[in-house]
Design a protein that fits this description.
Elements (H helix, E strand, L loop, with lengths): L24 H7 L1 H11 L14 E5 L14 E4 L9 H12 L5 E4 L31 E3 L3 E6 L5 E7 L2 E2 L8 E2 L16 E4 L14 H9 L4 E4 L7 E5 L3 H11 L4 H16 L7 E5 L3 E2 L5 E2 L3 E4 L1
Parallel strand pairs: 1-2, 2-3, 3-4, 6-9, 7-8, 9-10, 10-12
Antiparallel strand pairs: 1-15, 5-6, 11-12, 13-14
Helix pairs in contact: 1-2, 2-5, 2-6, 5-6
Length: 308
């Protein structure tokens, strides 16, 4: 098993990392003024929260753990959104699953990620894994979803529909579960009325540094889940609420396409409407659950707990 600890190298006094400095607000404004202002308005939009459920279910969200075994808070459901290992080796993958099985949560759900290559049956072999190793895995009581769904029953009796996928837009052809960016991979895959959607990739433009999938975002508009948990974009750990209103549409347009004054005024219009005529339609809570992230994965994050 690979025993290298990426965090241990920072304890060596002879090693110095030169970490790129984040651009200042002024630098970001000069680079793309209309996008900068649009995102500022979006940050201060009015959010109308849905009524709390009669039978609340606590969901603990993690992703991109690699070498980490963070302390997991108590909850009803534990979700891992992929990249359980750094290299897909069978030994390390099983060690991670054993750690997950030790957790007390009555329901545990996992999807794979780009680095979990041993799960991708289209792949041959790699360092520490070979074709067919996925058949040797002991999942224990973990539910593994690969472009598939299940219905879970929480301890309070509430039933939730869950669907999960390990796939994401291509970044490196040697990694697992990837598709071309121009491929409408999600067409007719995600069923209607899903309560919890788990994907390794984020939707484009939301907690993703624009590496997410536009077609997945389109699916959210067509069929909004109550909760969407994902990983991959390691520097964007956090949560966001989608309201599927005029403001969100205008901001997504200015992120992904033109960034001129006419598009910015659509954002302004949507911002005013969000306060004067707030949307009362479906809501989706987005969770980027990456535990590791940043330069050399040196930042450590905590699991995110949500109530749905």
């Amino acid at each position: 098993m690979n025993s290298w600890d990426p965090y241990a190298i920072t304890e060596d006094p002879n090693v110095t990392f030169i970490v790129p400095r984040e651009p200042s607000a002024w630098q970001r404004f000069k680079r793309q003024p209309f996008l900068f202002l649009a995102l500022k308005l979006y940050k201060y939009r009015r959010i109308v929260l849905p009524q709390p459920p009669k039978k609340p279910v606590s969901v603990i969200c993690i992703s991109n753990t690699y070498y980490q075994s963070p302390k997991i808070p108590e909850g009803d459901v534990l979700i891992h959104a992929g990249d359980l290992t750094p290299d897909g080796s069978l030994a390390f993958f099983q060690k991670t699953l054993d750690w997950l099985n030790e957790q007390p949560h009555p329901i545990k759900i996992v999807v794979g990620g780009m680095n979990d290559q041993l799960l991708d049956r289209t792949k041959g072999k790699g360092r520490g894994w070979d074709r067919g190793d996925c058949d040797k895995i002991d999942w224990g009581d973990i539910v593994y979803l690969e472009n598939s769904g299940t219905t879970i029953t929480a301890p309070n009796g509430r039933r939730l529909r869950v669907w999960g996928s390990p796939n994401s837009p291509i970044r490196d052809g040697n990694l697992g579960f990837q598709y071309r960016r121009d491929d409408y991979f999600w067409c007719e895959k995600i069923p209607q009325a899903v309560d919890i959607l788990i994907t390794h990739t984020p939707p484009y433009g939301h907690l993703d540094s624009c590496i997410g999938c536009y077609w997945l975002l389109n699916e959210l508009w067509e069929n909004p889940p109550r909760l969407h948990v994902f990983g991959r974009a390691e520097e964007n750990h956090g949560t966001e609420i989608l309201q599927y209103d005029e403001l969100q549409s205008a901001v997504e347009y200015i992120i992904g396409r033109e960034k001129g004054p006419s598009q910015f005024w659509e954002v302004v219009k949507g911002f005013v409407l969000s306060w004067c005529r707030p949307s009362t339609g479906p809501r989706t809570l987005l969770v980027n659950a990456c535990i590791t992230g940043g330069f050399w994965n040196l930042k450590r994050r905590e699991p995110i707990t949500v109530i749905i």
